[in-house]
Amino acid sequence: MQRTGGLSAAATLMGMVAPEVKSAAWAGGSDRPEKPAVKIGFMPLTDCASVVIAGVKNFDKKYGISITPARESSWAGVRDKLMSGDLDASHALYGLVYGVHMGIGSPRKDMAVLMTLSNNGQGITLSNHFKVRGATDGASLARLVHSEAAPYTFAQTFPTGTHAMWLYYWLASHGVHPFKDTKIITVPPPQMVASLRSGDMHGYCVGDPWNARAIEEGIGFTVATSQEIWPDHPEKVLGATREFVERYPNTARAMIMAILEASRYIDTMSHRSEVAQTIARKSYVNADVGSIESRMLGQYDNGLGLSRPDRNFMKFYGDGAVTFPYLSDAMWFLTQHRRWGLLKEDPDYLAIAQEVNQTELYREAATQLQVALPASEMRSSTLIDGVLWDGSNPRAYANSFPVHA
């Protein structure tokens, strides 16, 4: 992936607060958090780590807040609790936040993306049925799908979410129409393995550790990772309602700062085994440590006899390149919602991204921590089909795909 503009030292940008100002100043005076106790939702996935570690390592206390991580059972539940105010913020699918903001499949509510939490680390798992039939990559799967009378069933985790978009994009890149050639269902992440085992579906797209878990149980294999679809792609975000950010701006900034510190801690590779042990606990991901740790360390077993290091494994910080809420990232999800008919017409892509992604609030937090900031709010990337995405013409991009709704 190529990034536009590169990164520059945060403290030198835009005349913001000088680096000698102590970050703890945010917790005092007029910048004191308006709401010191916050409840942040998360789903039991490896990429919830920064939300969990922010509380476990007391990074939250440093900025005058106390984070209570709240384990949720489905993305629909996360959506509903954000909208009702039962959650102050949440580890969330990028497309979920935008789906709510656009009123796709739910009442519309103004939403906010405070920061990106992770890149990479998702996957598409197929049942061993395909291995037996010799369909172990996109091309062979497409041949099999097109030769069968009854459609195969594949699952994603939320209709507007990242997993749905990765699954659809990957299938379409191999000439498989997700809605015409297959049957698509929605299944919460922790239920994926059991549903595959029972035969309720033939494959799924989800975050780890639930791809690794299927391999460990001997019921499936990883046919593609999300980083093969889009290297260093945006994945989960810290989502909240716009109402929360406007009412509690200092609290929102403090949450970003605490999670930025946690993200930096996790991306120190010597900490990753400890982090895996922490989030594997029953109160968090509730999974075997090994199924979390190996892929967190970049070691991938695909269940087909290939075990290899992957340099594009799950990232949480990347010297600030991961955590910045790029406008082009947000716009990409809108283009895919348009592509698949979730949006019935082209919106003002850039204006909506500017409404939702809290880039100025993020800059304030990052500057205080001397976290590098990008020179541009847009970045460019080339996806699995060789098509460049840079956010410059989202309308044309959304309508350019030969496989679409």
Description:
- The chain has two domains: 7-119 and 233-296 and 315-381 and 394-398, Periplasmic binding protein-like II (D-Maltodextrin-Binding Protein, domain 2); 122-229, D-Maltodextrin-Binding Protein, domain 2.
- It has 405 residues and is α/β, with parallel strands linked by helices.
- The strands form five sheets. The protein has a five-stranded mixed β-sheet with strand order 3-2-4-11-5, sandwiched between helices.
- The chain is 37% helix and 17% strand.
- The two termini are 27 Å apart.
- It is globular and about 70 Å long.
- The model is unreliable at 1-25 (pLDDT under 50).
- The longest helix has 18 residues, at 249-266.
Q: Can you tag this structure with a few keywords?
A:
405 residues, alpha/beta, D-Maltodextrin-Binding Protein, domain 2, five-stranded mixed sheet, 17 helices, 16 strands, disordered N terminus
**Mean pLDDT, as a whole number?**
93
In the CATH hierarchy, what is the superfamily of the largest domain? Answer: Periplasmic binding protein-like II
At CATH's second level, what is the architecture of the largest domain? Answer: 3-Layer(aba) Sandwich
How helix-rich are the residues, as a percent range?
Answer: 25-40%
Content of β-strand: 15-25%
What is the CATH class designation of the largest domain?
Alpha Beta
* Weakly predicted, low-confidence segments: 1-25
Tell me the distance between the termini: 27 Å
By DSSP, the count of extended strands is 16
Query: Based on CA inertia axes, which overall geometry fits?
Result: globular
Main pleated-sheet profile: 5 strands, mixed
Q: What is the number of helical segments per DSSP (H or I, 4+ residues)?
A: 17
What structural class do helix, strand and pairing data support? alpha/beta
Rg value: 20 Å
Strand order of the largest sheet: 3-2-4-11-5
